[in-house]
Design goal:
heterotrimer; A alpha+beta (776); B alpha+beta (157); C alpha+beta (269); B: 157 residues; alpha+beta; Ubiquitin-like (UB roll); DNA polymerase, domain 1; 2 domains; five-stranded mixed sheet; 16% strand; C: 269 residues; Uridine Diphospho-n-acetylenolpyruvylglucosamine Reductase, domain 2; Enolase-like, domain 1; four-stranded antiparallel sheet; 11 helices; 14 strands; 34% helix; 24% strand; globular
């Protein structure tokens, strides 16, 4: 099936109008008649035994209809929120240890912000007021927030039955072969590399409304979720122990996700319980401070990275030993990130004969960790590109040449990497060269000396990256012909701002040769989409778009039979092109639009073919993950007096395979690069030793503002579409987050080439830079 | 409860409200103008920005009673009889929004900035966006849209 | 936010009376600090007395040797004021960098001073220019006004009416903002009046203060090289998530230099 002209065009977004006019519908914009409000008592301690909870004050407070504690919760026989990570590469045969993650703390709290009780009341203020009246007798326990400390003998034990706070240890790659490579190496460079813990901070805080229909005995949950189907299964089957059909899960417009809204949370089951108990809708929307305490956070790894190479600079082996922070519980797929998430793309686009990755995944008295845009690939790319930069620096290799000489050559593709990743397409050398030529290297010295004249230090870095897609491998797409001659397209995954309404409709329009205006898009409703894989792992276009392709193929196959009937010709004589079914050399033809119009209300057609004949339900299942890759570069200016950093130039060449809508793809790159810059320069979720979150509001957690981020020049390499899916797309959503942190860090390292940067870690705050320059 | 009388999007309104009602709550809950969004609780994010007497304010950091007698404009006022405002059109053209949550505050900031009539360039727009956070776009397209939208607004008046 | 009773008097007398009658009342100026405080339930007053309708608290007037600014004048009004721009451009610049544009449209001079946040910008200008704070009861010199962390010389029920800023020969302000809050990690105001120099520092300690050693050095020789390699003792400085005391000490020197550079650049224009 060939696509028509609209694919590849930067079609403007059809969802824009409602957002631009204030008509978007986010969870907080929904109010149901007779609704009540939930508020949560959250633990002020990072680690404590709950001796007693006195809820009498709250229960007696005006407007309060329900108070629920952990003890109440257990009486209902509800189950814990599940961990769905299936990690089966354990060292020494020990299994992953998953402690129960109940929606309420039962007899012990393990992080600041953990829910201790829920209050439901007539108004939000009365619920919040009643929360303050609950008295809890806590017995404080020793706290550990640092994952390396948590592993040490004598560290506070967060789970009685999990020794050393170790959830699992994990390995991937060939340890013995890698050791041999290190033995034969001329040089070995090792560094300890930290990846800072960050908060996702979608601008819309999490929130949900639960409703119960006593007639149908069915629950409805409007929820700011990126992953309605999997969340529904967890809430219904695992927690509430009801059939999944008894929970209708709806995601309205979502104000950004970035992974934060992907996993399960305790609040939705709690308010579902309350809605059922009270037979009234229950609403809860987090304040930003509540989000900082209770949203999942990301990254947070400490690694020892070693690179083995020959005298000439040929890479021989890579060894990465990581300690990953899980927080106090296993998040929905929390253990994935520091294990498989970080392991798979080790080695990047470079030819490594051997790689060994080892991780210890550790509980700490902090909020739960989960995938954050990139989920392991940014960590892996950072580890790799930092060690390469350090190697070049220490051994006096040209960092550009060192990288180029080790890149995988296009002619050796397809290949399987040392980590088992299948690379079918790409041209890493060409992409690198294209990026390099964008950066105007000849003008560098002039720019650098101009900066020097202004008393500034100037640096440059360029680095390739390679990642892989992830998330749910299966996706649904459905087509329904409506009576008004329009067709409904529904897809199981959900846009969090990523423009699915436009790009999926654009695909279908291209395949069927019908106007984008004739397509009505639906998403975010488990009653209208039988299954879906959520929004994560850059899978939207790769898996969702491919499902649309499958739906379009089936539609055309069926349409051909209908066209043959209408035109009175043999099915085999019909051709389809540009939206028209026709018999070559005759004037016999019918367009897709005609077919839709004729089938919509025709009793003859309904009689002959059955009602809703052209309706289609299709599935695409990804077998092998795609490999987005590219090369980013940047130039920075450093103020040696204050340590302040200014990113002057930023260039990106990305190979995302086929580009369906360049405008939307640009948006993904720009936004993800900005998040990468944020991680590199200013973002860090900091816990005090006491377990208190120090960055609990936007007054202390720095997000990039408009003047912190430069204009990015973006170019795509479109010569190497993947064959792993029918569209040839590789995924674009996370690449910027993978590529940016190391390239920004390395450019700063270049600017600081005359100083000792050994102890520098992200975020590269002005004080850290100043200390480096002034050797303090 | 106190009666607050003010003009919102050209319409005079007079409602009894609790004295502690924030302007944002008043707009969202009392007038059902849901375009004004709440993204934080410390006056940082700017998703709630509206225009009061010609000036941008964070409506989550102003009491409705402080605005008594004022002229308030929210994002719902921009569209004229179904026709998008030049700044809205520019945001659409330049793909200056993704999830749309910060967009109303961005638009009101942009419109007020353009109405000041001062010469603006990339740097000044970036500086003027100090009170508006966006997590999706990386700002690049927002800045481009504001420059284009402001230009359009100038040529249309 | 706890509910309260809201009043909006139109005269200073009425406002002061309203406050004295209230069991636990607070004046509300622009609200850019107070409203977040109320939202977080860090204050739970029973009465809020909005000063926004009192004409006597408004306006900017130039006298021969000073500029008088009413307490409820917003930061953006000061930023845009031709009077301030002409006589004390550094003050307009400072006002133009407080918070963000939206905060500046509501936040006021009097509100900022009465709050005396250790990282706020205005206290640096008031102390750095040796301004006088006129209240409904008396006049307080800037050297006496700022007492400590969130503390001023204001008595309970006393209201700032206007601030009188002496017109300096030259003045400048530079700040290094906190990347998250945009408050000053360190801000330094420098002014010169026929040979006498004042240098004030905000953000570094629990309260704005004068950097006397800089004042002496600059009185001798008003140029940045007077401050080169000047060691600023950091033992009383704040150390927090965003900056250590030692780093703040460095920034005090650098921001003082940049304030002076700003003066030089203005001269060139």
């Amino acid at each position: 099936m060939k696509a028509l002209g609209s694919i590849g065009k930067s079609i403007k977004r059809s969802e824009d109008k409602r957002f631009l006019t204030g008509q978007g519908k986010y969870v907080d914009d929904i109010n149901l008649p007779n609704q009540v409000y939930a508020a949560f008592l959250r633990s002020p301690y990072a680690h404590a035994i709950i001796n007693r909870i006195d809820t009498s004050g709250a229960l007696g407070s005006p407007g309060v209809s329900l108070v629920v504690t952990g003890t109440d919760w257990l009486k209902e026989n509800y189950g814990p929120l599940p961990c769905t990570s299936r990690i089966n590469t354990f060292v020494g045969g020990e299994k992953m240890k998953v402690p129960p993650r109940h929606c309420l703390a039962i007899d012990r709290v393990r992080f600041v912000g953990e829910i201790v009780a829920m209050v439901v009341a007539e108004t939000k203020p009365s619920a919040l007021h009643a929360v303050e009246l609950i008295e809890v007798d806590y017995e404080e326990l020793e706290v550990v927030t640092d994952p390396e400390e948590a592993l040490k003998p004598g560290a506070p034990q967060i789970w009685d039955d999990i020794p050393n706070n170790l959830c699992l240890d994990f390995e991937l790659g060939d340890r013995i072969k890698t050791a041999a490579a290190f033995d034969s190496a001329h040089y070995i460079i090792s560094r300890k590399i930290k990846n800072n813990r960050v908060a996702g901070v979608p601008i819309e805080p999490r929130g949900a409304i639960a409703n119960y229909d006593d007639d149908t005995k069915r629950l409805t949950l409007f929820n700011s979720s990126q992953n309605i189907h999997e969340n529904r299964d967890a809430y219904a089957i695992d927690v509430l122990k009801i059939e999944k059909e008894k929970l209708h899960h709806v995601a309205p417009d979502i104000g950004g996700g970035f992974g934060v809204k992907n996993g399960t949370y305790p609040e939705p089951p709690l308010i579902l319980h309350a809605a059922k108990k009270l037979c009234r809708p229950v609403k809860w929307v987090a304040d930003r401070s509540e989000s900082f305490l209770s949203d999942t956070q990301g990254r947070g790894q400490v690694s020892t990275v070693s690179l083995a190479l020959t005298k000439e600079g040929k890479f021989l082996g890579l060894r990465v030993e990581t300690v990953g922070n899980l927080g106090a519980y296993c998040g929905t797929i929390g253990p994935f990130t520091p294990t498989a998430g970080t392991a798979r793309t080790q080695g990047g686009p470079y030819g490594f004969a051997s790689i060994y990755y080892y991780a210890k995944v550790v509980f700490t008295n902090t909020a739960i960790m989960a995938p954050y845009r990139g989920a392991g690939r940014p960590e892996a790319a950072f580890q790799l590109e930092r060690i390469i930069e350090e190697t070049a620096r220490e051994l006096d290799f040209d960092p550009i040449e060192l990288r180029k000489k080790n890149l995988i050559q296009a002619k050796t593709l397809p290949l399987r990497t040392a980590m088992g990743l299948d690379i079918d397409s790409g041209n890493f050398v060409e992409v690198f060269d294209q990026a390099l030529s964008l950066t105007d290297r000849t003008g560098f010295s002039a720019r650098a000396s101009a900066a020097t004249r202004r008393g500034k230090l100037y640096g440059f870095a360029i680095a390739p990256y390679l990642e892989c897609t992830g998330g749910g491998s299966k996706e649904f797409a459905g087509i329904t012909v409506r009576d008004d001659n329009k067709i409904e397209l529904s897809v199981g995954s959900h846009s969090t701002g990523t423009g699915h309404e436009t790009s999926f409709a654009q695909l279908l329009s291209g395949y069927l040769g019908i106007g984008v205006d004739s397509i009505v898009f639906f998403q975010g409703d488990t009653d209208r989409t039988p299954f879906g894989g959520g929004h994560g792992g850059s899978r939207g276009m790769e898996v969702g778009g491919s499902a649309v392709y499958e739906a379009a193929s089936t539609f055309i196959k069926k349409g051909r039979l209908l066209a043959a009937y209408i035109l009175g010709v043999e099915n085999s004589r019909l051709q389809f092109s540009n939206g028209v079914f026709f018999v070559s050399g005759t004037d016999k033809s019918v367009t897709s639009e005609d077919l839709i119009a004729q089938s919509a209300g025709s009793e003859v057609i309904n009689g002959e073919f059955g009602y809703g004949y052209l309706n289609v339900s299709a599935t695409f299942e990804r077998e092998i993950m795609s490999i987005p890759n590219g090369c980013h570069a940047c130039e920075v200016e450093v103020d040696p007096e204050t340590g302040g950093i200014n990113i002057v130039n930023y260039w990106a060449v990305d190979d995302f395979g086929t580009i369906v809508n360049g405008m939307l793809t640009d948006g993904q790159v720009m936004g993800a690069v900005a998040q990468g810059i944020g991680q590199a320069l200013m973002e860090e979720s900091v816990y005090a030793d006491s377990g208190q979150l120090m960055t609990g509001s936007l007054i202390d957690y720095a997000l990039p503002r408009a003047f912190d981020v430069p204009n990015i020049r973006i170019q795509y390499y479109e010569e190497a579409p993947t064959k792993k899916n029918p569209l040839g797309v590789k995924g674009a959503g996370e690449a910027g987050c993978v590529a940016a942190p190391h390239v920004v860090f390395n450019a700063i390292a270049d600017a600081l080439r005359n100083f000792n940067i050994e102890s520098l870690d992200m975020p590269l705050t002005s004080e850290k830079i100043w200390r480096t320059i002034h050797r303090r | 409860m106190t009666r607050v009388s003010l003009e919102v999007n050209g319409k005079k309104t007079s409602i009894d409200i609790p004295d502690n009602t924030l302007l944002s709550t008043f707009l969202r809950e009392h007038l059902n103008l849901k375009g004004t969004h709440i993204g934080c609780d410390t006056s940082q994010c700017g998703a709630c920005v509206v225009i009061v007497n010609g000036k941008t304010v964070k409506s989550c950091t102003m009491l409705a009673l402080q605005a008594a007698g004022s002229r308030v404009e929210t994002v719902e006022s921009l569209c004229d009889d179904g026709k998008l405002h030049p700044m809205q059109r520019a945001f659409h053209e330049y793909h200056a929004l993704q999830c749309g949550f910060c967009t109303p505050g961005m638009l009101m900031t942009a419109v007020a900035l353009a109405k000041k009539g001062k010469e603006i360039d990339e740097l000044s727009v970036r500086t003027e966006l100090e009170g508006n956070l966006c997590r999706c776009t990386g700002y690049q397209n927002i800045v481009a849209a504001i420059l284009a939208g402001a230009k359009k607004m100038r040529t249309q008046t | 936010m706890i509910n309260f009773s809201f009043q909006k008097p139109t005269s200073i007398t009425d406002a002061v009376t309203a406050l004295s009658k209230s069991e636990d009342g607070l004046f509300l100026a622009g609200g850019q600090t107070l409203i977040p405080v109320l939202k977080q339930r860090l204050a739970m007053p029973c009465d809020i007395i909005d000063l926004g309708d009192i004409n006597d608290l408004k306006g900017i007037v130039a006298k021969k040797h000073s500029v008088l600014i009413g307490a409820t004048t917003t930061h953006s009004e000061v930023e845009a004021s031709p009077v301030v721009r002409e006589h004390i451009p550094a003050l307009a610049e400072l006002a133009g960098h407080i918070g963000d544009p939206h905060v500046r449209n509501l936040g006021t001079l009097g509100g900022s001073l009465a709050n005396n946040d250790p990282s706020a910008d205005y206290p640096a200008a008031v102390l750095g220019l040796g301004a006088t704070i006129h209240t409904n009861q008396r006049s307080i010199s800037s050297d006496e006004f700022f007492v400590g962390l969130f503390q001023t010389a204001l008595d309970p029920g006393e209201m700032i009416v206007r601030v009188e800023f002496p017109i300096p020969e030259k003045s400048g302000y530079a700040k290094f903002p906190n990347p998250a809050s945009r408050y000053a990690i360190v801000g330094v105001f420098v002014s010169s009046f026929s040979g006498s120099v004042r240098v004030s520092v905000t953000g570094a300690e629990s309260c704005v203060f004068r950097q006397v050693s800089f004042e002496e050095a600059l009185a001798e020789h008003f140029a940045i090289d007077a401050l080169t390699d000047f060691a600023v003792p950091s033992d009383r400085f704040n150390s927090d998530l965003h900056a250590s005391a030692e780093y703040r000490a460095q920034l005090v020197r650098v921001m003082a230099c940049r304030a002076i550079i700003m003066i030089d650049e203005e001269k060139k224009q």
